[in-house]
Amino acid sequence: MKVGIDMGSLTSGQPAKLDIEELLATRLLVQGNSGSGKSHLLRRLLEQSAQWVQQVIIDPEGDFVTLSEKYGHLVVEGERSEGEIAGIASRIRKHRVSCVLSLEGLEVEQQMRAAAIFLNAMFDAEHAHWYPVLVVVDEAQMFAPAAGGDVSEDARKMSLGAMTNLMCRGRKRGLAGVIATQRLAKLAKNVAAEASNFLMGRTFLDIDMARAADLLGMDRRQAEMFRDLQRGNFVGLGPALSRRPLPIAIGAVETQARSSSPKLMPMPEAPADVEDLKDLIFTPDPEELTRLAQRRVRPAPRPTTDILAELSRATPLSDQPSPRPGRDASAPEMDADERERRVDAVLTEILADPQSGYRTDAALYQDFMVRLRMRRVPGSPMPLGEFRRRVAIARSGVDAETAETEVWATALTLSATVTEDLQGVFLMLAHAAIKGEPCPSDARIARAYGTHSARRARRLLGYFEEQGLIIVHADHSGKRIVGLPDLQAETAPGAADAPDDEAGNAEAAE
User: Fold this and answer.
1) Contacts of 290 (CB under 8 A, 6+ apart)
2) Measuring CA to CA, which residue among 247, 206, 238, 237 is closest to residue 223?
């Protein structure tokens, strides 16, 4: 069914039509600086298409909750447990209910985690529930950042992975991503690149104007036009809009956001007497004191790692008789060597899963702690930092003989100069160089980093080279060689585009 919704008007006065069915297959990217009318555009799109398609809005500021009053959208507050959020998302997909996930009041990292859990639950819905859904994500640069910020690496990777699934693989599952951002430069390129439709609004920074011009297929000299766009005016391009860039003035909306742009208003008349003014400001009224007394302070959620640590220290339930006096009742007797062997066995078991490379460190750590407890391994829990370090070493593939060498000790020292998420990749390259093995392919490097993107693998090599840790060059046949100057070693030539044989063999074995 072909449905064209009215987004506003063209310069010719004709209505600007957006093909919803085509949009579901090709996705949309909206860009505009604060105050350009970006949220107004999204509201127009949502209002006009509400009767034709299910809608899910990821709303970090709570601006779109007013859609519930006129269009019946269910408002889902983000201040819920992970299990609750995932269950609600699954049922929303199953029953085809339009909703607004309001993340207002949460910290940025909490917003990222809540949005990721919600999107992943929708993505993992049963095949029978793959109905078409318009998934609108406002402030997408927050959920798919181009670089790390003040949030934890686990939260960033979790959120970025969910956004990548939405834009790259969501189409076959009925999920059509509509992402809006203030800054193209801050939005992850692999997320932005999956959109085929674009609505570009007013922007002033050269780097954003250049990217907008590139996406629209315009000459870079024409990029200056984005500075001159009025509020609510956008340049549109894409199969759901137009085959050529067209200026569009977005039409009126029927609902309003709870927040609005600031307007000038006259100042109130101040008391003439300074003492009266001081009394007005410094003396609280009784109602204010009552409100402060009744206000509840919501405690911050406890980190999962702290809870797991407590569980690991707890005494396991047992039907055995109570131990004799003088014996340690908290754990079975086990020498240090045996405990270390069991810990290594559990770690090897977890990393043997071919999908372990694509799971977050927090998820692997939780699995690790639970398995140790199931096997009744005594002792203090391994800190998350040490766990990450051991996972990085294990993923490098180093054998026992090489691990005892001085050159490997140097590699471990060098790996500490990069962030924890990159240590596994660096140690894998170091091991290949020390052993003289072929250079790992892009697919193998990507898996070690926890991604499927070969492009990101190449960027990692570029980053290591910029830091002076490696030197990348090619032999006469074009195969890649990675040298590590500090180790006086280099890999054998290897094909960058070779498949990841280890992952393929593991999947075939299953």
Assistant:
1) none
2) 206
Q: Which CATH number describes the domain made up of 4-250? A: 3.40.50.300
- Cα distance between residue 253 and residue 264, in whole Å: 23
pTM of the model: 0.55
Domain boundaries, the chain: 4-250, 340-395, 397-510
Between CA 73 and CA 356 the distance in angstroms is 37
**Has residue 505 got a pLDDT over 60?**
no
The reported pLDDT for the residue numbered 92 is 92
In CATH, what number does 397-510 get? Answer: 1.10.10.10
Mean pLDDT of 490-503: 81
List, for residues 301-332, the tens digit of each pLDDT value: 545 555 555 545 544 444 444 444 444 444 45
What is the model's pLDDT at position 262?
A: 61
pLDDT above 90: residue 261: no
198 versus 386: the higher-pLDDT residue is: 198
Sign of CA dihedral 366, 371, 374, 378: negative
Helices and strands per DSSP (H, E), number in the chain:
22, 14
- Of 121, 124, 135, the residue nearest 58 (C-alpha): 135
Q: Which of 224, 172, 180 is nearest to 198 (CA)?
A: 180
Which residues lie closer than 8 Å to 152 by C-beta, 6 or more apart?
109
Nearest to 445, CA basis, from 380, 503, 373, 387: 503
Q: Which of 53, 57, 79, 80 is nearest to 67 (CA)?
A: 57
Whether 152 shows a pLDDT value over 60: the answer reads yes
DSSP labels for 28-80?
A: EEEE--TTSSHHHHHHHHHHHHTTTSEEEEEETTSTTTTHHHHH-PEEEES-S
Contacts of 162 (CB under 8 A, 6+ apart): 115, 116, 117, 119, 120, 123, 143
Tokens 């005494």 appear where?
A: 315
Angular region, 481: left φ>0, alpha ψ -120 to 50, beta rest: beta
Q: Give per-residue pLDDT as tens, 124-137.
A: 889 899 999 999 99
